[in-house]
Amino acid sequence: MTLPREIAQAAAILQAGGLVAMPTETVYGLAGDARNPAAVAKIFAVKQRPATHPLIVHVTGPEMIKEWARETPEIALKLAKAFWPGPLTLILKKRPEVLDSVTGNQDTVALRMPRHPIAQALLQRFGGGLVAPSANRFTRISPTTAQAVYDELGDQVDMILDGGPCEVGLESTIIDLSQIVPRILRPGMIAAETLRDIIGVDVISAEPQSEVRAPGMHHLHYAPVTRTQLIPARDQGSLEKITQPTVCLTWSGLSHPSVHCVRMPDNASRYAQMLYANLRAQDQQQYQQILIEAVPEDTAWDAIRDRLSKASGQSGK
Ligand code: TXA
Ligand code: MG
Q1: For residues 198 and 259, is the Cβ–Cβ distance under 8 A?
Q2: Res. 209 pLDDT band, cuts 50 70 90
Q3: Whose CA is nearest to atom 19 of ligand 1?
């Protein structure tokens, strides 16, 4: 477990412009000082991420919103009160001094208060905002363990804080509150209806052709290196006639003698929790292809369906 001494050391690294990988409840983040242009530049370089993909600023709580956003709409406070700390990112109109490199030159900034105790301790000790994109190379699967961070980024990170496997396992829900109508830019395990219930107004989903530089608006985001394909739910026929080494992730219990079938939970939260770790593990084997059984249609699975279509390059975005 992480000691106060390690938190102090990590905060000192961040203050000096270094990078620290920290656990959050969603995925591990690559943290740097959000006010330090050199630290932000280093994050983009380490991740090999294009400058047009803005970063989320992680904060200690709703009291910090006004340091980054020039307007705090009532619904932002309602959502922060309901879901922070937790896997929800709010897009708000930014204050002028927020670095353009953080926002991708947009007029908005993304804010989130993480729930993991180590992330919270680090933010408290650091005393400012931390940009923290998922600690993976661009387009790759987000890491959900400290080992996965090391496998992705190795020695390019000054320190990796180990907080165990992530509890949620998928990246936060992102909701844009900078326009009149709230809009989900990235589905996450906090579903659209849940948000709608709190704010009492309708919430729309991002159009694929949207101008907003939302995450995963990219063919092959969150993708394994091994060729990955979706197969229809409960379709035993998809496993017939396979001759090359194949692994299949199945929640319904598909099986076939010539395919290595990995049983996934049939519950959305538990499935989300282990999806990336499983994809990563299977990607490291010598399979020719990864098959993933399509997940149930109901909204509890929305975020998972989104990531699966991106992992298999079927999103068409
Ligand atoms: O769960 C999470 O959100 C994790 C953990 C570490 O907190 N972080 C994460 O960061 O997923 P990242 O950088 O991998 O994804 C954040 C996405 C970016 O792809 C970016 O497109 C979007 O948030 N984003 C950030 N600022 C934005 C803005 N101002 N407008 C629209 N999208 C924005
Ligand atoms: Mg990411």
Answers
A1: no
A2: very low
A3: 215
CB-count burial class (<10 Å; 0-12, 13-18, 19+) for 12: middle
Write the DSSP string, 53-91: S--EEE-SSGGGHHHHBS---HHHHHHHHHH-SSSEEEE
Pocket test for ligand 1, best of 40, 47, 52, 55 (most atoms within 8 A of CB): 55
Classified as helix, coil or strand, 93 is strand
Structure tokens at 183: 């809009």
Q: Residue 152 in contact with residue 19, Cβ under 8 Å?
A: no
Position in ligand 1 atom list of the atom nearest CA 172:
1
Edge-to-edge strand list for the sheet holding 260-263: 227-231, 289-293, 246-250, 260-263
312 CB contacts (<8 Å, ≥6 apart)? Answer: 223, 228, 229, 230, 292
User: In degrees to the nearest 10, what's the CA dihedral of 94, 96, 97, 103?
Assistant: 40
Asked if 21 and 30 count as a contact pair (C-beta separation under 8 A), the reply is yes
- Which atom belonging to ligand 1 lies closest to the Cα atom of 132? 6
What distance in angstroms lies between residue 31's CA and the mean position of ligand 1's atoms? 12
- Which residues share a beta bridge with 306? none
Q: In sequence order, what are the residues at sequence separation of 6 or more whose Cβ sits closer than 8 angstroms to the Cβ of residue 197?
A: none
Q: What is the pLDDT of residue 205?
A: 83
Q: How far apart are CA 107 and CA 105, in angstroms?
A: 7
Which pair of structure tokens corresponds to residue 263? Answer: 């049983």
Ligand 1 contacts CB of residue 20 (under 6 A): no
Return the pLDDT at 210.
Answer: 43
Sheet-wide strand order for 159-160: 159-160, 20-22, 29-33, 130-131, 56-58, 108-112, 88-93, 173-176, 183-186, 204-205
Residue 220: per-residue pLDDT: 59
With bands split at pLDDT 50, 70 and 90, how would you rate the model's confidence at 223? confident
Distance from the alpha carbon of residue 29 to the mean position of ligand 2, in angstroms: 9
Alpha helices in the chain (DSSP H): 4-15, 37-47, 65-68, 74-83, 100-103, 117-126, 146-153, 192-199, 268-283, 302-311
